[in-house]
Each structure stands twice: as structure tokens, then as C-alpha cells.
Design goal:
Layout (H helix, E strand, L loop, with lengths): L2 E4 L3 E3 L13 H10 L5 E6 L2 E6 L1 H10 L3 E6 L5 H13 L4 H14 L5 H7 L4 H9 L5 H9 L6 H8 L3 H13 L4 H12 L9 H24 L2 E4 L4 E4 L4 H11 L5
Helix pairs in contact: 1-2, 4-6, 5-6, 7-9, 8-10
């Protein structure tokens, strides 16, 4: 039987990296808003709050859609080991952008009579979004294998660049993404230079400096996320601290800055 809890009373396990989760598509956010509903999550009591064991993606969706009360299954009396085992199932179920694309491709093959629009409706996506994600499954097989082995380095933006290259070049670029920890932006620059005949991967001092800066920014994001105990993002103009509508988390962030609000 489901209970209902406000999302600000829940938080993921400390072992969960929120940065590993993709942002919910606009289509899903709109649908959740319209229905004022998200799929349930599994939680355990932790004092006055609840730890999420399964369903972090649903919790994130609820916040983006401002669905304040989430259906929950409350598990009580679990040992720490049992909690860890259930949490590991949650972590292992996070799909990479490529895995999601391959799922869409398998679905289309099994439902060949459906149009792209009908398939998009099945997954609560816009047709353009569905087509974009489906196209990522066209990456060369050998490159796919390499991406699966090094999934933590590849965001959807990386795959978008790779699928626009010829098959022989895809694997070369994929290896460079991992070896040099290229950001999506730097991968786009590399691909543009390659298509424009402006030289090889080793030729740009400016790009090397940009890669070093991107690596430094990534390290800084990790350090700040650990310090403030929340998701931190840095771009060219802004430092973003995401407190997911959790008042206590926001108060903790303010406290760590040393600010005092009267």
C-alpha cells in the first residue's frame, strides 16, 4: 500500500551522486505537472526524514514538476546491509544515454508498425526529442562497446557529436574523450576542426589550456558538492547550488557559507 510524503522530507543515500542522474525531459515534467503525479519511491525512516532507497529519478522529477507529495512505499526494520543491497540495485539501474538510445531502438524494431510520433507518445516524449535520442543508437558497434566500458565519461552531448562522424573516426574521438577527459564543448570543437581540416588532436595549445580549465572546473564542482552537501554546477557565468526545494538543505548551505540571516 502506498503512503504519500512531501518531497522535501526525503533525500537520497550519501552514496548516491546526483550528478549521475540525467535531468528529466521537458515532456515528462509537463506530464507530471498536468497529472500532479510521479511514480512512487521506496524509502526508509531516518529520524524526521526519509532516505530514498529506490526512485531517485522520480524524486528529481517531482521537484522539477513541483509535485509536492510523492507516493511512497515505506520499508521499516531493515538492517544497514539490506539498505545497502537495495540502494545498489538503484545505482545499477541508472541507464547511460547510450543505453537509453539502444532501448528505444529495440522498442522500434519490436514495434515496427508504430510511427515515430506514436513511439514518442509511448515514452511521454516529444517526437523531436524521441528522434534525437533514437539517432544516438546509430553509433558504430565497436565505438558503442568502448563507450559502455567507459560510460562515466560520456554525456548525451558527446554522443551527439560522435554520431555525426564517420564510423572510423568515432572510435578515435571516443578514446580521446576518455584519455583527455574532454568536455562536450571541447569535443564539439575537435569535431569541427576535424571536419574543417584544421589538423589533428595534438595541434591546439589553446584547446589544451581549455581542457585543463574544464578538468579544473570538474574537480572544483566535486569539492564544492562535497562541502555544501548538494549538487553544484559551474558554467561560464554562474555557480549553481541546487537544493531541490529542501528547506533544511538550503539552511545547511547558508550555514556553511558563514552567512547569518536576520
Amino acid at each position: 500500500m502506498f503512503s504519500s510524503l512531501p518531497f522535501h522530507l526525503m533525500k537520497p543515500s550519501s552514496k548516491v551522486r546526483l550528478l549521475d542522474y540525467s535531468e528529466p525531459p521537458d515532456d515528462q515534467i509537463t506530464l507530471a505537472k498536468q497529472n500532479n503525479f510521479v511514480p512512487p519511491v521506496v524509502v526508509v525512516p531516518m529520524g524526521d526524514e526519509y532516505q530514498i532507497l529506490v526512485g531517485v529519478e522520480n524524486w528529481i522529477l517531482a521537484q522539477r514538476a513541483q509535485v509536492h507529495n510523492i507516493p511512497v512505499i515505506i520499508r521499516e526494520g531493515l538492517s544497514d546491509r539490506e539498505k545497502d543491497e537495495i540502494s545498489q540495485l538503484e545505482l545499477s539501474d541508472i541507464k547511460s544515454p547510450l543505453e537509453r538510445a539502444e532501448e528505444l531502438a529495440v522498442f522500434m524494431k519490436a514495434n515496427a508498425s508504430l510511427s515515430k510520433r506514436e513511439a514518442a507518445d509511448h515514452f511521454c516524449m516529444r517526437e523531436s526529442t524521441f528522434k534525437h535520442k533514437l539517432r544516438l543508437a546509430l553509433i558504430d558497434f565497436k565505438t558503442k562497446e568502448y563507450i559502455h566500458q567507459n560510460r562515466i565519461y560520456f554525456k548525451e552531448g558527446h554522443l551527439k557529436v560522435l554520431v555525426g562522424l564517420d564510423q572510423k573516426t568515432q572510435l578515435v574521438f571516443a578514446r580521446q574523450v576518455v584519455a583527455r577527459q574532454l568536455s562536450v564543448r571541447n569535443t564539439e570543437i575537435e569535431a569541427k576542426n576535424k571536419r574543417g581540416g584544421q589538423g589533428s588532436f595534438q595541434n591546439s595549445v589553446g584547446l589544451k589550456e581549455e581542457n585543463q580549465r574544464a578538468s579544473w572546473m570538474a574537480q572544483l564542482e566535486t569539492l564544492l558538492s562535497s562541502y555544501f552537501q548538494c549538487e553544484v554546477g559551474i558554467d561560464n557565468k554562474y555557480l549553481r547550488l541546487n537544493y531541490y526545494g529542501n528547506k533544511e538543505l538550503l539552511e545547511g548551505i547558508i550555514e556553511r557559507t558563514g552567512l547569518r540571516l536576520d
